[in-house]
Design brief:
- This protein has no helices and 28 strands.
- A hairpin with a 5-residue loop joins strand 3 and strand 4.
- The protein folds into two domains: 157 residues, no CATH class; 211 residues.
- Strands 17, 19, 21, 22, 23, 25, 26, 27 and 28 form a nine-stranded mixed sheet that branches. Strands 2, 5, 8, 9, 10, 11 and 14 form a seven-stranded antiparallel sheet that branches.
- The chain is mainly beta and 375 residues long.
Length: 375
């Protein structure tokens, strides 16, 4: 199974054994989890596993041996098995969110027994650790019984058949370079073996110094500055074809506005979903290596616009540090059929808000840090 939640139990005064525990899936439907299992340790320190099947998004485990020592903690790990991603089963794009669940009316979803006293702790006794199922007037479980069914939330997770992995490629440049059309970053995009990935846009973060005050790292302030025509992106297997049309490149300043005269270039956003560029499809289990190049000579100049000891580094940020209103990556799960998940990345720009587009928040190995280039 896949780990979706972990819950920590703390005991005071005496040790307890938790023998009843209920979980709920508040983020999706029963079909997203073919089975559910709890992993924990008993009093002897042995690993124990209990499994069950959700009915109406709920299952109560009985006969558990979860041991919580006095003044100590114990962890329960929840795993789900989703089964095959098919239209009749879990859909790519469905959600799962496994929470702990109590019912303070029926008192039948939680029980712990004191090892020394034999006293019993039930749903009402742990009420203070849980949040009302009804939140801000929203009946989240359709029960209409405010304050009686409560949960301790796990994180909602989205099920995908495939996902991209982005990594720094072997041979990505660093160190001293000669001004001209120079390679500034080489990176890989790998699709999971279970399905192909469509890459629709990618954003690069630029950090540069301008020791000679030639404005070479600024936008369109003259022939010595950077413009969209100075940006080139290639598949490493086809270096004669620039994948990024000028009309599908956005140069942005630190505030994510269009980079104008006299402003330092901070972000380069390449939109394959645009009118003139083609989406990049990475086959299941395959890797494509891309090469980003910049022309730092300056159109019409006889000498490089960069000067000795100027520097540059190009990264791919994580989603949290992308330019405001943009995503660091926009991609599609070509297998998406589910309806529970957030299938639109909500970017709000021209390259987003279409069904099944996803942002860089799902790509866990970001950021990618390029090498420092010294001219």
């Amino acid at each position: 199974g896949v780990t979706v939640s972990k819950f920590e139990f703390t005991s005071s005064n005496e040790a307890f054994v938790v023998d009843r525990l209920a979980i709920s899936n508040t983020a999706g439907s029963d079909v997203t989890a073919e089975s559910v299992e709890l992993n924990y340790k008993n009093q002897a320190g042995e690993d124990k596993v209990a499994s069950g099947f959700l009915t109406s998004n709920l299952f109560t485990f009985e006969g558990l041996e979860l041991y919580v020592a006095k003044d100590s903690t114990a962890v329960v790990t929840v795993k789900v098995t989703t089964g095959a991603v098919t239209s009749a089963n879990t859909g790519s794009g469905d959600s799962v969110g496994i929470d702990l669940y109590i019912d303070t009316t029926n008192q039948n979803r939680f029980r712990a027994v004191g090892s020394g006293s034999g006293s019993t702790i039930d749903d009402s006794d742990v009420d203070g650790s849980f949040a009302d199922y009804d939140t801000a007037g929203v009946d989240e479980d359709d029960s209409s019984d405010n304050d009686t069914t409560q949960i301790l939330r796990g994180n909602n997770m989205e099920i995908r058949k495939t996902k991209p992995t982005i990594s720094l490629a072997s041979g990505s440049p660093s160190g001293t370079v000669i001004a001209g059309i120079v390679e500034v970053l080489r990176f890989n995009v790998t699709a999971d073996s279970r399905g192909s990935v469509v890459l629709e846009s990618i954003q690069f973060k630029v950090s540069a110094t301008d020791s000679g005050a030639t404005d070479w790292d600024q936008c369109t302030s003259g022939s010595a500055a950077l413009a969209v025509g100075d940006i080139y992106l290639y598949d490493s297997t086809e270096l004669s074809t620039d994948l990024a049309a000028d009309s599908d490149i956005a140069l942005l300043d630190s505030g994510a506005a269009s980079c104008g005269n006299g402003e330092d270039l901070v972000f380069i956003d390449v939109d394959f979903f645009g009118d003139s560029s083609a989406d990049q499809t990475i086959a299941a289990g395959a890797t494509k290596t891309y090469i980003l190049k910049l022309d730092v000579v300056g159109t019409g100049l006889a000498v490089p616009s960069v000067t000795q000891d100027d520097s540059m580094r190009v990264d791919i940020s994580d989603e949290a540090n992308a330019a405001s209103g943009y995503d660091t990556v926009v991609w599609q799960d070509s297998n998406a059929t589910g309806t529970d998940g957030d299938n639109s990345n909500g970017q709000g720009s021209a390259e987003s808000d279409f069904a099944n587009q996803l942002d860089g928040g799902y790509i866990k190995n970001l950021p990618i840090i390029g090498g420092a280039l010294i001219f």
